Predict the structure.
Amino acid sequence: MHALTAYIEGVGLLGPGLKDWPDGRAVISGQQPYQPCKTVLPLPALLPAAERRRSGAMVRLTLATGLEAIVAAGLDAASLPSVFSASGGDGENCHAICEMLASADRQISPTRFHNSVHNAAAGYWGIATGAMTPSSVLCGFDASFGAGLLEALVQVVVDHTRCVLLACDTPYPEPLHSARPIPDAFGIALVLAPQHSAQALAQITVGLTDADADRLDDAALENLRIAIPAARGLPLLRGIALRQDQHVVLDYLDHTRLAATIAAC
C-alpha cells in the first residue's frame, strides 16, 4: 500500500473523563491528570424534536464529536463527505430488540427497527446537518478505527476533497456486555483535508507496518485504549496534542498495524 497523506483541520473527542478535544488534549499531553468518569452524551440540538427523542447513544455521540471537529475547522458540515466507523451497532437498541424477540410479543417497533440498521447514525447526521454528500459506513470489529481512518484518507487523496471521519463505540447492556464488554461510549472525529490550510493542525502520513502498536504511559488511558476499539486512535491524538513531529503505530489487524507520521503545522 502506498502511504496516504492528508492534513488534520479539526478534532472532536468525547469519552470517559474526556468531555471534548480541548479537555482531552490537556489530559492526553500530560498537562492535566486523567480523571475517569462516565461519558455524558449531549442531546443533539440540531435534530428536530421527534428525531431527537428517538436518537440513541451512537447518534448522539457522532453528532457531538463530528460537529466539534467541523466547528473547530471552521467548515460547513453540509459540505463534507463522511466516513462512519464502529465496531458494532447501537448497543442499547440491539439489546432492546433482542428482548422483544425473546418475549411473547415479538412485534418490533418501527423506531427500534430503523435505529437498528448499520447506517442509522449517518442518516441522522444528514437530517441534523442537511448534508447530502456521500457517506460511507463500515464496521471492522476491533480494527474499526484503523479501517475508518484508511477509508477517510483514501477519499481525501483520491477525490482530493475534505472528509470527516466519525469513529465511535457504545456499550451493550447485560447479558450482551459479558460477550462484548465495551465499558462506555467513546468517539473520535477528524476533519481531513488534501492540502495545507490556515486551519491545519498537523500533517499525517499513514502506511502499513508489522511493528507493535504504541501504548500510552498513563495506565488508565491505556486501559481505555485497549477496552474500546474507537479508543485505538488515542496515540494519534497524543501525537497531535503534543504539537511535535511524531511517529506513532496504531492497532489495526492482528498482524498489520498502521504507521502514522505526524508533522505539526
